[in-house]
Amino acid sequence: MSAASRLVHIPSGHARLEGMLEAPPAASGVVLFAHGSGSSRLSPRNNFVAGELRAAGLATLLMDLLTAEEDRAYRTRFDIALLTERLADAVRWLRGDTMAGTLPFGLFGASTGAAAALQVAAALPGEIGAVVSRGGRPDLAGAEALARVRAPTLLIVGGEDYGVIELNEAAHARLACAKELAIVPGATHLFEEPGTLEEVARLAAAWFTRHLAGARPA
Description:
Elements: E1 4-12, E2 15-23, E3 30-34, H1 44-55, E4 59-63, H2 68-71, H3 74-77, H4 80-95, E5 105-110, H5 112-123, E6 128-134, H6 143-148, E7 153-158, H7 164-174, E8 179-184, H8 196-212
Parallel strand pairs: 3-4, 3-5, 5-6, 6-7, 7-8
Antiparallel strand pairs: 1-2, 2-4
Helix pairs in contact: 1-8, 4-5
């Protein structure tokens, strides 16, 4: 059987966030994607990872945290508080959804979206079962939020993504939850090198499957 999919619209303040919710039969969890600056739910990289997660039996929600107008403004792209508010609203909306609302929740964040994912995990510890960051800026979540995260967290960074590696190492040290830092050899920030994005997908699928399987929201 193929995955069930539908276009959704999630209210958040004055905005309505558009997204695509897709669930394979008997999904063991659902993963919300928080895109990075200058990206969208149509990102080929995140869509590839989402496809691999669905193949592993996980539902996915890819959405735009910013409107098209907001995404054109550099300042808004790095407004972590706004991204966090939007992502938290999406978590609350999804909890009431008949397709995926009873499943354990995971968050997958890329770039600045990783900071928003970690802030949401810190603010809603009973709602989030696992977090994965791809080439993220977890440091932008802030030391206080990082220390309050309870969801098992995997930070994935490219072995050639100099500067970002160090930021991930510092964030990893501040996390007090189950955690892992995975460095993908030969990968730069966007994981464009052959085989590197496949490795991201493999790592993410294994992490979410391990930590969401059998879990239920508090």
